[in-house]
């Protein structure tokens, strides 16, 4: 058996492969419930992380020729990112479990030797109460680090804290 | 078309660098301090985006950004993308980026006092064929200084990004070159605990890939995480 190749940091110069249009998952003409997702990334000192690559991937709505279901966005000079995508619905889980609507988030940056993975959920979704991943987090304050808040009609916001107070729950997949 | 939704096996101990690596100073305020939450793998983790060449056109020759040759030692990098069960990963996208031969990135954040090359940009994108093989042409990237510690220099390296067939396989890594004296001093390279896993990040010089009177050849294979044997669902 072969062993998976080691990860190494994306470094500060990954923008050489950046295509800013990738942050808009509706650019190929996907129809549906269009939403804007914004957020910031901060480090253990509370400083904004301005050189990260944020990726999102969602299994609902499913990927299609019109909808890549995947996006990538830089954090800007203020540590902020912004995606346009389609709002996910519930996702089948293991066995009969229903997963709440969610979007996978992967964070790459200088100083991260391998990616950090987390999930974004949406405030006020009844399925959040029984979601098999959220249910693994006993502390309600920790659980809230994954719940995006509505900031305007069709606009949701989630701040990601890499370290320290209110550190985001990161996951091993 | 079928979609494999079998979960990925855990990573082999020592094969991956811990994010808490004090020798690499930028990790200090960026690594999480809480243990990672182990989650069950569902369809979000076991499937991945599909990149079509029609929408993500290949850039397989980095050595001629303007149609004119870049400065530096021309190289061909060729290899395979396989999984831990040594099965080829076909039709998968590989993103590539690197410094020029003088050790300078064509990036506004790079202020190293080395020349830019108008004929070199440093961005590439290739796809594996049906047997998992890929190949591209470039120039050997130069070393460059960085601020991690006194007199710190990065070894020659090329950055890669791969997606595989599931988001749990996402890989971003760096390929190094054989015989580089800076490897033994580089905290990013040394962050991989297992020496054998680390050494697999070093390309091999390969005379069969070398093109006579044209370019030196290097072989570099990628291994993506393997899956547990079971479900394959019809998509």
UniProtKB/TrEMBL annotation, chain A:
<dbReference type="InterPro" id="IPR015889">
    <property type="entry name" value="Intradiol_dOase_core"/>
</dbReference>
<dbReference type="GO" id="GO:0008199">
    <property type="term" value="F:ferric iron binding"/>
</dbReference>
<comment type="similarity">
    <text>Belongs to the intradiol ring-cleavage dioxygenase family.</text>
</comment>
<dbReference type="InterPro" id="IPR000627">
    <property type="entry name" value="Intradiol_dOase_C"/>
</dbReference>
<dbReference type="InterPro" id="IPR012786">
    <property type="entry name" value="Protocat_dOase_a"/>
</dbReference>
<keyword id="KW-0223">Dioxygenase</keyword>
<dbReference type="InterPro" id="IPR050770">
    <property type="entry name" value="Intradiol_RC_Dioxygenase"/>
</dbReference>
<dbReference type="GO" id="GO:0018578">
    <property type="term" value="F:protocatechuate 3,4-dioxygenase activity"/>
</dbReference>
<feature type="domain" description="Intradiol ring-cleavage dioxygenases">
    <location>
        <begin position="31"/>
        <end position="149"/>
    </location>
</feature>
<protein>
    <submittedName>
        <fullName>Protocatechuate 3,4-dioxygenase subunit alpha</fullName>
    </submittedName>
</protein>
<dbReference type="Pfam" id="PF00775">
    <property type="entry name" value="Dioxygenase_C"/>
</dbReference>
<keyword id="KW-0560">Oxidoreductase</keyword>
């Amino acid at each position: 058996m072969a062993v998976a190749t080691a990860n190494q940091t994306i470094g500060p110069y990954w923008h050489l492969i950046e295509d800013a249009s990738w942050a808009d998952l509706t650019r190929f003409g996907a129809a549906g419930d269009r939403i804007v997702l914004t957020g910031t990334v901060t480090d253990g000192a509370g400083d904004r992380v301005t050189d990260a690559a944020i990726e999102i991937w969602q299994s609902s709505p499913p990927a299609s020729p019109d909808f890549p279901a995947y996006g990538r966005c830089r954090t800007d000079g203020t540590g902020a990112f912004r995606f346009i995508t389609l709002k996910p619905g519930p996702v089948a889980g293991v066995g009969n479990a229903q997963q709440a609507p969610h979007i996978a988030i992967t964070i790459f940056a200088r100083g991260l030797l391998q990616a950090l993975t987390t999930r974004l959920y949406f405030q006020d979704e009844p399925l959040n109460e029984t979601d098999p991943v959220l249910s693994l987090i006993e502390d309600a304050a920790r659980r809230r680090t994954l719940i995006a808040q509505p900031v305007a009609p069709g606009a949701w916001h989630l701040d990601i804290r890499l370290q320290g107070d209110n550190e985001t729950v990161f996951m091993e997949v | 078309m079928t979609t494999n939704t079998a979960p990925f096996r855990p990573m082999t101990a020592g094969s991956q660098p811990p994010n808490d690596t004090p020798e690499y100073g930028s990790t200090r305020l960026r690594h999480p301090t809480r243990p990672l939450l182990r989650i069950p793998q569902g369809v979000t983790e076991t499937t991945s985006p599909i990149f079509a060449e029609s929408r993500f056109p290949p850039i397989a020759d980095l050595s001629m950004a303007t149609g004119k040759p870049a400065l530096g030692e021309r190289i061909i990098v060729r290899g395979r993308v396989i999984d831990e069960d040594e099965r080829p990963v076909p039709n998968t996208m590989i993103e590539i980026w690197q410094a020029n031969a003088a050790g300078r990135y064509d990036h506004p954040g790079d202020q190293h006092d080395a020349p830019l090359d108008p004929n070199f940009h440093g961005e590439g994108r290739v796809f594996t064929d049906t047997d998992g093989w890929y190949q591209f042409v470039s120039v050997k990237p130069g070393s460059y200084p960085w601020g991690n510690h006194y007199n710190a220099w990065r070894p020659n390296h090329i950055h890669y990004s791969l997606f595989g067939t599931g988001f749990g396989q996402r890989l971003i890594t760096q390929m190094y070159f054989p015989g580089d004296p800076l490897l033994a001093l580089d905290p990013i390279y040394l962050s991989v605990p297992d020496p054998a896993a680390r050494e697999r990040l070093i390309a091999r010089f390969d005379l069969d890939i070398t093109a006579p009177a044209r370019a030196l050849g290097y072989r570099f294979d990628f291994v993506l995480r393997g899956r547990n044997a079971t479900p394959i669902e019809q998509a």
